[in-house]
Amino acid sequence: MPSALCASKKRYRALTRGTKPEAGPNAPVVYWLSRDQRVRDNWALLRACDVARANDAPVVIAFNLLTKFLGAGARQFGFMLRGLRELEGAAKAKNVTFAMTYGDEPAIAIDALAKKIGAKTIVCDFSPLRDGLKWRKELAALCEARSAHCEECDAHNVVPCWEASDKLEVGARTLRGRLAKRYPEFLHEFPEVPDDLPKYSGPALDAVKWDDIIAEALSRGQAVPEVTWAIPGETAAHAVLDDFVNSRMKLYEKRNDPSKPQALSGLSPWLHFGQISGQRCALEAKKAVGKASPPAYESFFEELVVRRELSDNFCYYSPKYDQIEGQKYDWAKDTLRLHASDKRPYLYSLEELERAKTHDDLWNAAQRELRYGGKMHGFCRMYWAKKILEWTESPEQALKFAIYLNDTYSLDGRDPSGYVGCMWSIVGVHDQGWKEREVFGKIRYMAYDSTKKKFSIPDYIARVNALVKAAKADFKSGESSHAANPGLFKINVPAANKRKATEEAQ
Ligand code: FAD
Ligand code: FO1
């Protein structure tokens, strides 16, 4: 038997009871790909390959296309589908067939596909969000009913979420040490996907009509159009990582200055859709540490691994992760309740917020960056969410509005880090109590006057104005201009990966 590619058995676990992985030349292994949309550096795909290799079976990657997902529009569906189109080609190069199913009942669709092709083993990737958990549970029940085997493999986190901790962590302080103990076991290089797997030769699978499904998704979600600067897919993701670790990580200590956006990696859209592995980013950053400085690398690692994996921990162990009750600690819920009827200095409707019509030029710029650029600077996200608490009728309304705006406009929204970011800002999750004040109670406050001492607000506003102008021009022309990228970094990809060239090639 070949040695295992997914060497650690702790990365995956069975979702069905009383079954074991079975496969054969006429019984392919299905990898149901959802959160980790890549071929390289994907533990779930590697696990599927292990089961296949041990049984001389082919691997089929199945993706179920939803019609709606947490408010995503053309911006996010376009990014995802264009990335998947590239993935289909990368999978084919490894003898792995890509199949698409459709509709808002993914468990039923994936199980039907598995039955059709005679698959008795399905490997899923992992998500701590409630819909992802529900889908996988439903699929496991369907598999169990026909004695098929279903397992999940955490391909998103360095340390699998359930291995990192078996409980809700207080904060980064408590998770950091737990993760560090497990790096020797989990933070290592990835093997290649083998290219000698047998080719799938079962019942014919429908070819994916990419142009049609992309056109349909864009038309359905046209209220929030695509941002053309963000080149989707694995190749672009690696180009962003390469540019960051080799040329920009040295700036990372300036990450809290929104007028210097190149200091941030800009990786979150690709990480969110799993077009790149967080573990790959951590490995490459470590290799490039000599080009930056140890503190820059360490701060990046802290955000990329500790904070990101803390978000999964929160959503997994706090099922109400997007509601005030999701905060476990009474001090925060009590203080918000006590100040719920405090007079707000301003009150804005959702529409006023959405259209950036507040009295605050910094807040309006941040909202415009989100709306037109598809990604808000990390520092501004905290200020932006806290001001929504200050200017809406209640903490419940503030949280609802913040999550709605983030999920609707951000490429990286609908993500554990987004729910935790909003919960940190508005509900004090992973934070401590601060000096009590109106509206916020003991929740940490951020003031315009102190923020303006930290960076040049006029420089940030000027940059966002240029971004909005470029984004509007791109929208008309279909071009992809540098100034429209909120991170102002270059994405060095072959011409074929660029938007216009790709479409002309169709
Ligand atoms: P970098 O600073 O280069 O960080 C690299 C990676 O580390 C990020 O891509 C991300 O995966 C991770 N990371 C960085 N900061 C955090 C953090 N505070 N918590 C968890 N992971 C982090 N992040 C999202 O991915 N999606 C969201 O929808 C989202 N919404 C947010 C909303 C609010 C109100 C707040 C306060 C934060 C939110 N964040 C979100 C976290 C963070 O702001 C973004 O991850 C970051 O700005 C992404 O840009 P970057 O990749 O250039 O960041
Ligand atoms: N995952 C899917 O399996 N199918 C989809 O159609 C799909 C759409 C989608 C749109 C926006 C977005 O941000 C993510 C999307 N995802 C989709 C991925 C989804 O986040 C993951 O499947 C999560 O694991 C769900 O909890």
Automatic annotation (TrEMBL):
GO biological process annotation, one example: UV protection
GO molecular function: deoxyribodipyrimidine photo-lyase activity; DNA binding
Pfam families on file: DNA_photolyase (PF00875)
Function according to Swiss-Prot or TrEMBL: Involved in repair of UV radiation-induced DNA damage. Catalyzes the light-dependent monomerization (300-600 nm) of cyclobutylpyrimidine dimers (CPDs), which are formed between adjacent bases on the same DNA strand upon exposure to ultraviolet radiation. Required for plant survival in the presence of UV-B light. Not involved in the repair of (6-4) photoproducts.
Cofactor: FAD
Catalysed reaction, written as an equation: cyclobutadipyrimidine (in DNA) = 2 pyrimidine residues (in DNA)
Species: Ostreococcus lucimarinus (strain CCE9901)
Family that this chain belongs to: Belongs to the DNA photolyase class-2 family.
Protein name (record): Deoxyribodipyrimidine photo-lyase
EC assignment: 4.1.99.3
InterPro entries recorded: Crypto/Photolyase_FAD-like_sf, Crypto/Photolyase_N_sf, DNA_photolyase_2, DNA_photolyase_2_CS, DNA_photolyase_N, Photolyase_Class-2, Rossmann-like_a/b/a_fold
Domain of life: Eukaryota
The entry's keywords: DNA damage, DNA repair, DNA-binding, FAD, Flavoprotein, Lyase
Keyword NADP in annotation: no
